[in-house]
Write a structure and sequence with these properties.
The chain has 8 helices and 4 strands, in the order ααααααβαβββα. It is elongated, with a radius of gyration of 20 Å. With about 180 residues, it is of the alpha+beta class. The termini are far apart.
Length: about 180
């Protein structure tokens, strides 16, 4: 319940405002790149996330760090957005706001995010096959793949699109076979 409240009252409105600004200035793709850079920074630097989320650190110190990190990397409007988040004491939600921006942009462009879990890296031909399968399943214009490796699958692939799961892994096939054998007995 708490996550829903935070999402509804903080994350979504800020992400929507960022998308609205991007649309009004025709900067959707530029902001998408800026969002990606920020998400990469937050993922690779736990210290940065903790620093920005710490309420004991003064806003000016946070702004100085953001300016130093982002001034030559992101669009000026996006930097102003980051500074606004500091002023409004919402910078702790930066990662979630960035992820929500990407989700809104995907929805606007009819792009589907598909999580693909395999035991080995996919070849380009396999990637294209997965993309075509997901397009036919969803009717999306484009598909973004987020690939993860999982050695416990034994072989095959699992594709997750929203709440749909296509389990073509060996582990999944063995589980289904075991289930059908138990039900047959």
């Amino acid at each position: 319940m708490m996550q829903t409240t935070v999402s509804g009252e903080i994350i979504e409105p800020y992400a929507e405002a960022l998308l609205s600004l991007a649309q009004s200035q025709q900067l959707e793709e530029r902001f998408n790149q800026d969002v990606g850079m920020i998400l990469d920074l937050l993922e690779n630097s736990e210290d940065l996330g903790q620093f920005l989320a710490n309420p004991l650190i003064k806003a000016e110190a946070k702004k100085a760090v953001l300016r130093q990190i982002a001034v030559n990397e992101v669009h000026g409007y996006f930097l102003n957005f980051l500074l606004l988040l500091v002023d409004r004491r919402r910078i702790a939600f930066l990662g979630a706001i960035c992820q929500q921006y990407r989700a809104l942009l995907r929805k606007l462009r009819n792009i589907v995010l598909a999580e693909v879990i395999t035991t080995v890296e996919l070849t380009e031909a396999q990637r294209q096959g997965v993309i075509e399968k997901v397009k036919s399943m969803t009717g999306a214009n484009e598909v973004e793949l987020a690939t993860k490796l999982d050695s416990s699958l034994i072989g095959g692939v699992i594709v997750k699109v929203g709440s749909q799961v296509l389990d073509a892994s060996l582990r999944g096939q063995l589980r289904r076979l075991s289930f059908s054998l138990l039900n047959a007995a």
